[in-house]
């Protein structure tokens, strides 16, 4: 199975060249997503926020259940979308740079867990919209992904993000006025679950039946390049660091 196929199903690590290509795609995906969110805000503002009223999630209202797929694209005012845009791009990019296809599956999972948490548990006739659930989901995913994937660089990124943005968790607990803490909590749970579901499943090393210098069979990783490959040393160093 080739590297691209492995990434699609989350069964193995990527080569450095593929990782760079996926990071480039991740940048444009998040740029496009933000552009779409801002276009929706312009239309929403022009229509006096009728889109937020019509396509938000209201707890227990069966008619708004499909709106869990539209609510993340909508906001109530300019301050709302401005406060969400930066974290959405940063955490979204970090969540996507190891594979855009995997990221799309993760995003759908977070949207569903965040939206259903609001729909089932929110009190009162509250119309909930906003990308905050996605932000918290991407945050949770980025923080723990390295532990499940056993990638050193992702683990370090997770530690830095957790230390830098731990304050965000204060709006994922009860009692925060003016925000849907349930949407935040549901998104966070979706991101943590997604880190496990979409983790790398590294193949077992393949046994190489040839002998080297009469020392008996040797073991070579399934993705290990041949010794005469000019990039063999680079692959070995990246593998030792847990980057592959």
TrEMBL record:
Sample GO molecular function, one term: serine-type endopeptidase activity
Top-level lineage group: Bacteria
InterPro entries: Peptidase_S54_rhomboid_dom (IPR022764), Rhomboid-like_sf (IPR035952), Rhomboid_protease_S54 (IPR050925)
GO cellular component, one term: membrane
Region (Disordered), start-end ranges: 204-233
Main location: membrane
Subcellular location(s) per record: Membrane
SUPFAM superfamilies: Rhomboid-like
Protein name as catalogued: Rhomboid family intramembrane serine protease
Species of provenance: Streptomyces olivochromogenes
């Amino acid at each position: 199975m080739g590297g691209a196929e492995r990434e699609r199903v989350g069964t193995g690590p990527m080569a450095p060249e593929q990782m760079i290509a996926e990071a480039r795609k991740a940048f444009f995906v998040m740029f496009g997503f933000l552009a779409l969110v801002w276009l929706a805000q312009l239309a929403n503002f022009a229509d006096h926020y009728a889109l937020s009223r019509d396509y938000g999630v209201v707890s227990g209202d069966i008619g708004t259940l499909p709106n869990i797929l539209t609510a993340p694209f909508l906001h109530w005012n300019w301050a709302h979308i401005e406060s969400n845009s930066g974290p959405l791009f940063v955490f979204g990019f970090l969540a996507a740079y190891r594979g855009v296809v995997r990221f799309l599956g993760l995003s759908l999972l977070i949207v569903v867990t965040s939206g259903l948490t609001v729909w089932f548990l929110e009190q009162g006739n509250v119309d909930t919209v906003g990308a905050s659930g996605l932000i918290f989901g991407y945050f949770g995913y980025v923080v723990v992904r390295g532990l499940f994937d056993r990638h050193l660089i992702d683990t370090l990124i997770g530690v830095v993000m957790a230390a830098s943005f731990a304050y965000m968790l204060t709006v994922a607990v009860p009692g925060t006025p003016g925000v849907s803490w349930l949407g935040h909590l549901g998104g966070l749970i979706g991101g943590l679950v997604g880190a496990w579901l979409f983790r790398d499943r590294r193949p077992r090393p393949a046994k190489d039946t040839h002998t080297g210098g009469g020392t008996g069979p040797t073991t070579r990783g399934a993705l290990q390049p041949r010794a005469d490959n000019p990039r063999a040393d680079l692959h070995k160093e990246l593998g030792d660091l847990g980057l592959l």
